[in-house]
C-alpha cells in the first residue's frame, strides 16, 4: 500500500506525507534526512522562502510551482521531525492555521460585517494578534517579532510595534535629521566594534525612513541589487566585446560604461541581453 501511494502521481498531499515518512524512517530511510533536526533544516526553509519570493519578483511563474513545492516540503519536513519527537503531526499544523485564519477573519467566517475598509481590517487583524500574544503571555510590545527574520524586515516590524504605542517620530524631517546624525557618528567611529555598532544604527534609521515613506526597505534593496547586477553585467558585456575582463580595465573606463548603462536603463532600453 505504501509503495503504491509513493508512486501514485494523483495522490496529492497524502503522497507527499508518505514520502516524507519514508525518508525519515530510522531503518529504511535516507541517512541524511534521518539525521536532520529543526535547527539544521531551518536555514533551508528560509532559503526556499526567498526562492519563492525571487520567482515572484522575476515573474518566473513557470518556476513558481516548483519553488512553492520546495517550500511546502519544508513544512512537511518540520512536521515529520515534530511527529518523530512526539510533539505534533502535520494535521495539527493544518488545524492550527485553519483555526487561526477563521479566528482572525470574523468578517468572513463570523457574524461581523465584511463592509470594512482594508485599513480597518488591518487594525482589526492587529487587535486579534495582540490578543493572541497576550494569551501566550507575550506582554511586551516587541514580544513575538521573530529573531530569524531578515534584519531589515525585523527592524520595520519592531518599529511598527513601537509606533503603535506612540514611540515614533511624528515627522519625516525628524527621521532625516536622525539619519544625518547617525551618518556623522559612523564617520567618527574610532574602532571596528564602534563602527559596526554605528553602521547598524544607520541601517536601522534607514529602515525607519522607509517605513515613514511607505517604502518596503527589503523590496527596495532587492530592486537596487537587481539594478546594480543589470548595469554591471552591461559593463562586463561591453568589455567582453573587446576581449577584455573588468580586471583588465580602469575604474574610469568602467565608470563611463556604468553611466552609459544607466542612461540606457533609464531610457527603458533592455541592457540585459
UniProtKB/TrEMBL annotation:
Pfam family, one: MazG
Signal peptide extent: none
Top EC class for this record: hydrolase
Gene3D superfamilies linked: MazG-like
EC number: 3.6.1.8
Gene Ontology molecular function, alphabetical: ATP diphosphatase activity
Catalytic activity from the UniProt record: ATP + H2O = AMP + diphosphate + H(+)
Domain NTP pyrophosphohydrolase MazG-like intervals: 36-109, 175-233
Gene Ontology biological process terms, A to Z: dATP catabolic process; dGTP catabolic process; dTTP catabolic process; dUTP catabolic process; response to stress; TTP catabolic process; UTP catabolic process
Stored InterPro entries: MazG-like_dom, NTP-PPase_MazG-like_C, NTP-PPase_MazG-like_N, NTP_PyrPHydrolase_MazG
Domain of life of the organism encoding this protein: Bacteria
PANTHER family per record: NUCLEOSIDE TRIPHOSPHATE PYROPHOSPHOHYDROLASE (PTHR30522:SF0)
Family: Belongs to the nucleoside triphosphate pyrophosphohydrolase family.
Protein name: Nucleoside triphosphate pyrophosphohydrolase
